[in-house]
Design brief:
Blueprint lengths: L3 E2 L14 E8 L9 H21 L8 H17 L5 E6 L5 E9 L4 E11 L9 H20 L4 E8 L13 H12 L3 E7 L29 E5 L4 H14 L4 E6 L10 H5 L4 E5 L21 H18 L8
Parallel strand pairs: 5-6, 5-7, 7-10, 8-9
Antiparallel strand pairs: 1-2, 2-9, 3-4, 4-6, 8-10
């Protein structure tokens, strides 16, 4: 096995050359073993879920088509209901009395219900993009997590939230789903001990040159797009280190992490939680730095690597189980 120690981390993803915190990370060939039966079943489940959102529903942006957003919302609710998981709508008011919604699932902690871990990802897209990777892949991952939590109740409360209105023209505005949700959590004084935003997690390749960075620092970074990345701001570096460490203890899938205080470190659904004082990080495949279909009409299900996605998701599901356990001390 070829091992590459990741030395610089995700500098480019956070837009700065200094003031960077790096979590220990190791990169290697991600497709090192054939899928076992459980992973193969997960691969097909992920493929089906991505296809339902990206193909059956298609582009889903409330500024372009409220009907599409409604269809996506209902599909999420029905998909959860089919496996016996109850959900609730967290209303987001639009102009003219129109309402859209985040979809929330709560798995109440068996021992410490007042300690809350939030996992969230957006289900909307930019206009005219079917959003297979951005972010049907994240929705599919959250579905897998929800099914696992139903069968394995956590000791801490874990919420799985599907956010509306992450993409333009709603990004960071008053109608951004995660912003509305984080504000309500703060107003209720919810004790959120960790939040992980899931965004674009389906593109992987072991081909040389598949990972791209700006030329200024690209020569110092890996050129193989075979890892999952965790990132946040410096204030959340302890949570970042914990999640990366737990993930690496549960999975052989390549993973790296980095934190900085650049503007790009706060690009995503984790940012509104940070602004409200909650510890939060982002998990991503680095999106536009490897995915040529990013925010384009050809972000379709056929370009995702479902085998490697299944390997990664399996590890993340186990990571969530550990985060939901009181044996894991969350800083």
């Amino acid at each position: 096995m070829r091992i590459i120690v990741f030395g610089i981390g995700l500098i480019v993803l956070f837009g700065m050359l200094g003031c960077l915190h790096r979590s220990p990370g190791v990169l290697h060939n991600s497709s090192i073993e054939p899928l076992n039966d459980q992973q193969a079943a997960l691969r097909e489940q992920l493929r089906r879920d991505v296809d339902q959102l990206a193909t059956t529903v298609g582009p889903r942006n409330a500024a372009q088509s409220l009907s599409a957003i409604s269809k996506a919302e209902q599909w999420i609710i029905d998909r959860l209901d089919k496996v016996g998981i109850n959900s609730q709508r967290d209303i987001v008011d639009m102009n003219g009395g129109v309402q859209v919604a985040n979809i929330e699932v709560t798995f109440k902690g068996q021992r410490e219900p007042n300690q809350i871990v939030v996992l969230g990802g957006h289900y909307d897209t930019v206009s005219d993009s079917p959003g297979a990777n951005d972010n049907a892949s994240g929705v599919a991952l959250l579905m897998a997590v929800a099914e696992h939590l139903k069968a394995n109740p956590p000791e801490r409360t874990v919420r799985v939230v599907f956010f509306v209105n992450e993409e333009a023209p709603f990004s960071f505005g008053i109608q951004m789903g995660s912003k509305v949700y984080a504000e309500r959590c703060k107003n209720r004084k919810d004790n959120i001990v960790a939040m992980i935003a899931i965004d674009s997690v389906g593109c992987y390749s072991n081909a040389p040159g598949s990972q791209h960075f700006p030329s200024l620092i690209g020569s110092s970074l890996p050129s193989t797009a075979n890892f999952i990345a965790f990132g946040s701001n410096l204030a959340n570096s302890r949570l970042l280190d914990l999640v990366v460490s737990v993930f690496q203890s549960q999975s052989q899938f390549p993973s790296i992490g980095a934190a900085s205080d650049s503007k790009m470190a706060l690009r995503g659904d984790h940012a509104p939680f940070i602004w409200k004082g909650y510890p939060a990080i982002l998990m991503s495949d680095t999106s536009e730095f490897r995915d040529k279909t990013y925010h384009r009409p050809n972000d379709t299900p056929d370009h995702l690597n479902y085998a490697d996605m299944a390997r990664m998701v399996g590890g993340f599901v186990k990571t969530v189980e550990k985060l939901g356990s009181l044996e894991t001390v969350i800083p």
